Each structure stands twice: as structure tokens, then as C-alpha cells.
Amino acid sequence: MKTLGLVLELNPAHFGHKYFIDTAKAKVSPDYTICVLSTSFCQRGLPSVADKWEKAKIALKLGVDLVFELPVSNLLQFSDAFCRESIEKLASLKVTDIAFGVELDNLEKLKKIVDIMDSAAYNLDLKENLAKGSSYASSSLKAIMKQTSDEEIINAINEPNNILAIGYLKALKNYPNINIHLIKRINNNYNDIDLNDSLISSATAIRKAITDNTNYLDQVIDKDYKYLDESKMLDKLFDLIKYQFATHDLSYFKDILCVDEGIEVRINKFLGEAKSFADLASLVRTKRYSLNHVNRILVNIALDNKKGINDTPYLRLLAFNPEKKDYLNKLNKDIKALIFSSPKDSNSSVLSQELKASKIYDLITGLNTYKLEFNAPIKLEVNNNE
Questions:
Q1: Are 67 and 144 contacting, i.e. CB atoms less than 8 angstroms apart?
Q2: DSSP letter at 40?
Q3: The Cα angle at residue 355 between residues 232 and 229, in degrees rounded to 5
Q4: Structural domain contains residue 385
Q5: What residue numbers bound the domain in which 54 lies?
Q6: Which pTM does this prediction carry?
Q7: What is the C-alpha R_g of the chain?
Q8: Which of 153, 187, 220, 269 could bond 200 through an S-S bridge, CB–CB 3.0 to 4.6 Å?
């Protein structure tokens, strides 16, 4: 029996995601396909333009059989932590195969990067470069170049999908029996801001089109959903950040996820002069702190997302294909005991934070999705006419 595991954000779900899932399933021919899905916020530190229930529904439509939640306390972290949490969830669900997207579809060379990054020489060089004031990306590149002259490796390490792939591979070293499959990104780059005539555009370009109110509906899977304007959600988050700093001493923020090295002082310094969330993030970013990392910090502050709340294994089922739900019965009793869907069945602090994030998402979007947290998991309508 083969079980394929995927990590999805679907922000929003588009034809690149369809290509990725279809290609992964064609490679593996799985009996079951499982995903962990980022919820209403995303790893790069911004709110999702589609709520998590919409994304769970579309994941089923795209061929996923069981959709599990990757909550905000897991996903709003450094890429390595995000990847580790994702892989650990899939491994606990006993997947036999995992697929992820890459710019460099060469598993041997990606594993070589992981080996270099695990070496003492690389980490010494990395620390020395950081101490000199170089950014993490620049420091990593310089350290890699001292260990290899392979141009493909050197060019690969700062590509967005490759960065996550390296994180997944680091985590997968603990699970050597899981088969790894690479799906090469096609027709666009992650940071492309223009829609593509091929209909496989970057999510970045689609989100920009939503904000710009230009036609994007031929690019997305669900053409009936009213996608959300990222910039308007960020305006509301900016107000929440200002509220947090107005009502707490600076020492309070040391317990917020991803806040370290006194960056809360820097945020407070620029909060009065910033005109928007994006403006604040731009002012706070430094060579050491990338824009995405600053975004994550700011969203964690807005959500009041605390450090150290990952207290128990968290396996929450959001959606399923009724024809494939029998997979849950194939898991051992210890794993089955950890799986839940209703908040009534768990007292996890991870869940408590996720429910808080759901309320805040409704606050910044005007939606009413919080009530859906207490509904049964979404079922695929197997005989629908779509």
C-alpha cells in the first residue's frame, strides 16, 4: 500500500497546484493521498486570500483524500521549523512517499546541500558571516561557496521552493524509509508578479491581480469564491499590532513566537512613523532579518502567538474523501487516538491558539468562518456534477 504525503498552502489554489498534485500522483500511483494544509495564515507571514475551509474543500477537489491542519503555531516559523512540523505530521500518519516542488529537480544535489549545511565548517563560516553583518541568505551563500564550486548548487540555495525542499530533506533524514519525489516548477517563478498566458501563474501574481482588481478568474480553481484582498487584511493587522504595543510593555513581546534579539525594540521604534503593515515591515527588516521573517514576527504579534505552545502531537482532520476514510482504520491505535476534528475533542494549547487566529481572521476579513470550526469535517461530494 502506498500513501502519498503533501504539504500545501493553496493561497489561492491554482493550476500550478493541480499540475503538482496530478504529477505527484502519477509518479507514485498512491492508494491514498494525504496533505497537511496551512490554515488562514501562511508560512511567509501573511493572511491567506482564501479561508482554510475553502482551501480544504479545494484540496479534496484536486485529489487529496485526507486533509490535516497545519496550525498557525506550527506554520508561522522559520522555514526549517515549518518543514519539520509538516514532515513530522505526515510521518506520524505513516505516509510511504512524499512529494514537494523544486526549482532544481536533482535529489542528489539537494541532499548534498543538506550535508554541507550539517557540516561544522559550513556552520562556522555561516556564523562568521552573520557576525560581520551579512544577511542570512548572503551568509549562507558565502559559506556554501567555500564548500563547493558546483554552480547548480550555488544557484539553487536561495530559490524559494528549493529552500523549503532543503528544509523537508533535513527533516526526512529522520525517516529514511519514506520515498522522496521532486516535482519541478514549470511556466513561472515564485516571485513573478504578472499573470501567465499558460494559466499556470505564480500565486504571487494572482494575489496581486486580486488586489489590483484585474481579471484573474481563469487562473484559479474555484471561480465562484470571493477571494480576499491581501492589502486590506494587512491594514487591519497593522491596527492590531499598534493595539498590542499600546497595551503591553516591551518585555511582553519576548514571549511571542519568532521574537528574539530585541527586535521588538526595533518594531516599537518604527511603529509611529510607519503608515501601513508593509511600510512597517520594510522599515524593520535588516540584512539579518528578511522581509518574510519580519512579516511572520508581525503577524505573530497581531495574533498574540506565544512561544512554546506545541505541547502535544496535533493531528486535526479538516476534510476527507468518504471513499478513502478507511485509511484511518489502518493506523495503529496510538495514532488514531491522536486524531480529532471537533475542538470538543481536544484541550491542546495549539488548538486554542488556532481558534484565536480563526477569530482574528474573521475580524480582518469580515467573514464568519469561526463557527465552521465546530462543524463536522468537510466531505468530498463524490457524485457531484462539477
A1: no
A2: S
A3: 15
A4: no
A5: 3-103+173-228+312-358+365-379
A6: 0.94
A7: 21
A8: 187
